[in-house]
Specification:
- With 543 residues, the protein is α/β, with parallel strands linked by helices.
- Among the domains are: 147 residues; 52 residues, no CATH class; 33 residues, no CATH class.
- Helix content is 20%, strand content 32%.
- It contains twelve helices and 36 strands.
- The strands form eight sheets. Strands 7, 8, 9, 10, 11, 12, 13, 14, 15, 16, 17, 18 and 19 form a 13-stranded mixed beta sheet that branches. Strands 21, 22, 23, 24, 25, 26, 27, 28, 29, 30 and 31 form an eleven-stranded mixed beta sheet that branches. It has a two-stranded antiparallel sheet with strand order 1-2.
């Protein structure tokens, strides 16, 4: 047991043998504070125009023009026309200060991802086509305003969805077609406002249904009755849909039955949104992993601790957004690296320490090349110095972050003030906006019939944040095709609303109303959910 030096809470070192195996000092922060610090390094900034510091051309990036390091268009960064800077170790200075200086000198590439077509206005995008103002996607096509979406096409406003088609405003839904305004559904189609439904089609405002069709408010109708009732609804009106949204939230809160967690096919695991995992603890949004502790969105990993956004990794610690790595510690946005520590945007590197922006290197410190023998001689001395200075064993300090905390994924989970994050050594970033107080913004029509092509490029004001936003021709076509009214809320605000439907990473203990046993759930008490049960009782109550 230790006390967190930041929040002062007591915490337990759950896997001491792991630290011994990797020859690591024990953590000084509790798991929650460590997770927050890592999430501060996961950019969720505003996609904005800036200059490429290599060519001078305009690029779109989450890195602002005020980023503390140069930013290159990705094709130049991976080219051979520049060399990363290197530094000598100054034994009289803090190593973290030297590493920060190196990071500030070294270019970072403007966009994460590859094999894309027409995806300039997107980030963390892989093998996609025609993605606009979206992030974290794989094999998607013709999508807009989505986050963490895989294998989907012709969709808009999705958050954490896989295998979706012709769908709109959904969160945590899978293998669905023409689904709208829904949460936590699988294999559903041609439906509106579904919660925790599976195998349903042609249903409206329903919850906890399995393999049903032609239901409204969980009541069964004939096909003819159903179609007649749906036809009478004003689903082309924004005002009407907003009232339905409120009603949907009330049914989820008061009538729906909630399984305590969203775990599926797990063995000896605790956490939430865990699928096909074994022996994973304090784990969230995990898939195909085993023997991990304090992990978030790190699929296909094994024997990892304190990893956030690691894909295909093993025996790694305090890592953020890395792929195909083995035995790495304290790493940011690296790929195909092993036996290395304190590395940032390095690729195919082995036995490197305190390096930034290297490709295909071995035995480097602060980007300087050493022989194998020199490296082996220097490293024990350097670790000893860092331990003495209280640095070795700690993740990168907050000030190393690529964006301000308010433009990181951490801001979605932790309600930090600017003064609070400054005390931790971090910073907030000025959010760009195009507001012009004197501008007279046009008023959006309430009905789908008001959507005309002359709205393209016009600037509208968000009804929640006052931020200006516009519509593209493709966007207007989508709304007309699905007979939906235009939203009067900025896309970023809409994404925040969807993300907020995912329970936070904070467990609490409650009593199952069915069997009366103690269970762990992740729904906050403030959500007011009336019926949360264990898996056995939940399954007994499904329709």
């Amino acid at each position: 047991m230790r006390n967190c030096k930041q929040c002062k809470s007591e915490f337990e070192i759950q896997v001491p043998k792991f630290y011994d195996k990797l020859k690591l000092t024990l953590p000084t922060l509790c798991p929650v504070c460590r997770r927050q610090r890592r999430l501060a390094f996961w950019p969720y900034g505003i996609l904005q125009k800036r200059k490429c510091d290599f060519s001078g051309e305009d690029i779109i990036s989450t890195y602002s023009p005020d980023a503390h390091f140069p930013v290159f268009r990705k094709k130049y960064w991976f080219g051979d026309d520049w060399n990363p800077p290197e530094m000598e170790i100054d034994w009289n200075k803090s190593f973290f200060e030297q590493l920060y200086e190196l990071q500030s000198k070294t270019p970072h590439f403007h966009q994460l991802g590859k094999n894309n077509t027409n995806c300039d206005y997107a980030d963390d995008v892989w093998s996609c086509k025609n993605a606009y103002l979206s992030r974290s996607m794989l094999e998607c096509e013709d999508v807009m305003y989505i986050y963490r979406v895989l294998y989907s096409k012709d969709c808009m406003d999705l958050t954490y969805c896989y295998n979706m088609d012709q769908s709109y405003e959904c969160t945590y839904c899978f293998k669905c077609y023409n689904l709208k305004f829904s949460l936590d559904c699988r294999d559903c189609s041609d439906s509106y406002f579904l919660y925790s439904c599976s195998g349903c089609r042609d249903c409206f405002m329903c919850w906890n249904l399995r393999n049903r069709k032609y239901c409204i408010f969980n009541k069964q109708y004939s096909e003819e009755e159903y179609k007649e009732k749906i036809k009478s609804l004003h689903l082309n009106s924004r005002a009407f849909l907003n009232e339905l949204r409120k009603r949907f939230v009330d049914h989820i809160k008061n009538d729906a039955i909630h399984k305590a967690d969203h775990n599926l096919n797990t063995e000896n695991c605790d956490g939430n949104y865990i699928t096909d995992c074994r022996n994973c603890h304090d784990a969230y949004f995990m898939e195909d992993a085993e023997n991990d502790v304090h992990v978030y969105r790190s699929p296909k990993t094994n024997n990892c601790v304190d990893c956030t956004g690691l894909l295909n990794g093993e025996l790694s610690y305090e890592v953020c957004q890395c792929t195909d790595c083995n035995n790495i510690r304290f790493a940011l946005f690296c790929s195909d690296c092993s036996d290395s520590a304190y590395i940032d945007q390095c690729f195919n590197c082995i036995h490197c320490f305190g390096c930034v922006g290297l490709k295909r290197k071995k035995f480097c410190i602060l980007n300087k090349q050493y022989s194998k023998e020199e490296y082996a001689k220097i490293m024990p001395k350097l670790k000893e110095k860092m331990i003495k200075d209280g640095e070795y064993g700690e993740f990168f300090p907050y000030k190393f972050a690529f964006n301000g905390f308010n433009l990181s994924l951490g801001s979605f989970f932790y309600n930090e003030t600017e003064s609070g994050i400054k005390k931790k050594g971090g910073y907030f970033e000025k959010v760009p906006n195009g507001k012009k107080e004197e501008e007279n913004y046009p008023v959006l029509s309430d009905l789908t019939e008001g959507i005309t092509d002359d709205l393209v490029g016009k600037v509208f004001k968000c009804s929640k944040s006052d931020q200006p936003y516009t519509f593209t021709k493709q966007e207007l076509d989508f709304y007309r095709k699905h007979n939906l009214p235009l939203p009067d809320v900025h896309p970023e605000e809409r994404n925040k609303e969807r993300f907020a439907k995912l329970p936070p990473l904070t467990p609490r203990t409650i009593t199952c109303p069915g069997c009366k046993k103690k269970i762990t759930t992740y729904y906050p008490e403030s959500w007011g959910y009336k019926r949360i049960g264990c898996e056995e009782c939940y399954l007994k109550t499904l329709y």
